[in-house]
Design brief:
It is a single chain. The termini are far apart. The strands form 3 sheets. Strands 1-4-7-10-13-16-19-22 form an 8-stranded parallel sheet, with no helix packed on it. The chain has an 8-stranded parallel sheet with strand order 2-5-8-11-14-17-20-23, with no helix packed on it. It has 191 residues and is mainly beta.
């Protein structure tokens, strides 16, 4: 599925299996999800579950469930990705190297973000800005990789937010370079 303009998933269900590269590509315009998108629930495939180059909004009633990916569940290449709904990555099978690979602007403003089954990091903030004001749970079910969060850019855990990281094999949080600002709660290794 590729969007080049305006895509509204308001009451439908989208299920994508067996894609060679990225299952859902938002190349231009705006993609608003207010319903259910399930990617890779039956088979392993491709490089990315969702690849965003523009504006992707997962609204309060939006639900994203991604499994079975070879590279990363969500690749926010250059755009803006905003979540106030529910995102579940790797709850059944591998999401490749990363749960989220961010080079753009990623905002987790409300709702839930659960990440499991990555091999390198639950969240890899390579060159973008990552703002969290809600709850992020990494590694609650399965190993999220070597790092729960690997930051090389600008990451802010803002007032009222909570980050829970468990089961990473090397470090819960690696601030490799860049800026990591914590004004809330980070819990590592509670389970």
């Amino acid at each position: 599925l590729e969007n080049l303009d305006q895509f509204e998933n308001t009451g439908g269900t989208i299920q994508i299996e067996k894609s060679k590269l990225s299952a859902l590509i938002n190349s231009a315009g705006t993609f608003n999800n207010a319903a259910s998108i399930t990617i890779g629930s039956m088979s392993t495939f491709g490089v990315s579950g969702i690849e965003n180059h523009a504006t992707f909004n997962n609204t309060g009633s939006g639900y994203l469930n991604i499994d079975g990916v070879g590279g990363q569940a969500i690749f926010n290449q250059t755009g803006s990705f905003v979540n106030i709904g529910s995102i579940k990555l790797g709850s059944k099978s591998s999401v490749g190297l990363f749960g989220i690979y961010n080079n753009g602007g990623f905002e987790h403003n409300a709702g839930s973000l659960l990440i499991d089954h990555a091999s390198q990091a639950g969240i890899y903030n390579k060159a973008g800005t990552f703002d969290n004001v809600a709850m992020i749970t990494i590694g609650s079910l399965f190993n999220p990789g070597m790092y729960g969060i690997q930051n090389q850019s600008v990451f802010a855990n803002n007032t009222g937010a909570v980050i829970n990281i468990d089961r990473s094999t090397i470090s819960g949080l690696l601030n490799e370079s860049g800026s990591f600002q914590n004004n809330a709660s980070i819990n590592i290794g509670s389970t």
